[in-house]
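step: validate -> pass
step: tokenize input -> pass
step: predict -> running
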Amino acid sequence: MGKSIPQYLGQLDICKSVVSLATGAGAIYLLYKAIKAGIKCKPPLCSNSPICIARLAVERERHRRDSGELRRLLNSLERKQDEYAKSMILHSITRCVYLLEAEASACTTDDIVLVGYMLDDRDSSVKTQALNTLKAFSGIRKFRLKIQEHAIKVLELISTIWDVELHVAGLRLLNNLPLPDYVHPQLRRVMPALMEILQSDNILAQVQAIRLLSYLAQKNDLLYDILNCQVHSNFLSLFQPTQPGSLLYEVLVFAERLSEGRNAPHYRAVKWHYNEQSLHESLFGAETRLADRLLALVIHPEEDVQIQACKVIVSLQYPQDLRARSSTCQSSHSYFKNTE
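step: predict -> pass
step: emit ->
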């Protein structure tokens, strides 16, 4: 039968005098004392640090007890703290919201307002952690409407602060919320910033930006603003097969939705004018090389990228009956021949 550590320590006590007589007894005895002291040593009582509070809360949640630690963290956020402390507290609140479902659901809209105040903090890291906390709370249905009220502020932060972590946090939050129509004017104003993030060199930010743009491309009153947004001359490099598959897939979804939108009867009923460096000209203009990019992606090693590339081809070839033909890329050759 196995023995517990205290039982072994007891045996060590009995043998201590014998061991001390052996060669090198002093060193062995000191080693014994160190091991025994290390095992018997109790950690200090948990402090009020945010990390310690979160650990206690998770342990109590495992035993289905209301720890009250999420409430303690929120209360501590109300007190005057330095930027580092606020950032750590918000980080711990975020963890607790994800891990302690019952306690998170028991929070109130006043707590959402409190976290929202942190978006006005002067420190960028505090803003980022507040965005992450709001994202965590947005998974609880009753808080979504209250969190939506911060959408305009979030868009302002994304468009005025060039910080990758803040961009990722803000865009993740926006992608987890239904955006009401009253936000659309602000969305028009920040469209160039969203397009710049899409063309940056950070994959996480790019993926989140393209997901938001794909969602907005389905809004009739925003489609032209997206298509007429100015892009870099190398925008089609986003369609290169060497790009990460996760980004390629999202870019292709975006292209499909733009193609569908511009070919919708109500959109074609208006004669639109685009600037020469617009997204529309880059993707659908007379000089576009999109055809070459799509052909290369049809044989991409990732199947979801292949399928999505075919969907874009079909949307360009058969705009009127896209849904009926979206399962095949047959007969797409004529489109590419004409484009080339």
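step: describe -> The radius of gyration is 29 Å.
step: cleanup -> pass
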